[in-house]
Amino acid sequence: MMAVNTKIEEWRKVLSAKDNEIREYQAKMQELRSKLAFAELDSDKSSIVKLQQVLQERDNQIKILLEQIEQYTIEMNTNVQIIEDSKLQLEKESNFPVLNQQSRIGALQERLRASDQSTLEANRIAELAEKDAKAKDKELGEMLIRLRTYE
After folding, report:
1. Rounded to 10 degrees, what is the CA torsion of 105, 106, 108, 114?
2. Is 104 exposed, middle or buried (0-12, 13-18, 19+ CB in 10 A)?
3. Residue from 54, 71, 22, 11 nearest 143 by CA
4. Which of 21, 47, 54, 62 has the greatest number of beta carbons closer than 10 A?
5. What is d(CA 105, CA 98) in angstroms, rounded to the nearest whole number?
6. ∠ CA 136-150-142 to the nearest 5 degrees?
7. What is the pTM of this model?
8. Tens-digit pLDDT profile for the chain (151 aa)?
């Protein structure tokens, strides 16, 4: 009977040691889980910062492109006015040779076409930049939602 009691006490000590070891591992697991959550949160925060920087760059690019569009529009209006003035002047001055008038009109029309083309290209680039900015804004919103769920 004494041997049985001794074995029982030995097994109790072994089981108690194992229980303590399990508690230690559970504590380590909990600590690692919290570290993982903080690492994910830090990663999300850095992603948000990067997205905000990209969004700011896109906004700046859109602003620059809009300024270029305004400039091209002013230039185009100036060219239209020059063409109209030239036509009026040509109509008033009938002593100019027809070839000089036609070549001048052609040159002015070519300048107008070039300005129109530049304006169209600037509009296209601005639209692309705006679409990209919207996509980045949406992605930023999603990241903020994910960040709030981690908190």
Report:
1. 160
2. middle
3. 54
4. 62
5. 11
6. 20
7. 0.43
8. 888 889 888 988 988 899 899 999 999 999 988 888 777 777 777 888 888 898 899 889 989 988 988 998 898 889 889 888 887 877 776 555 566 677 778 888 998 898 889 888 888 988 888 888 888 888 888 888 887 787 6
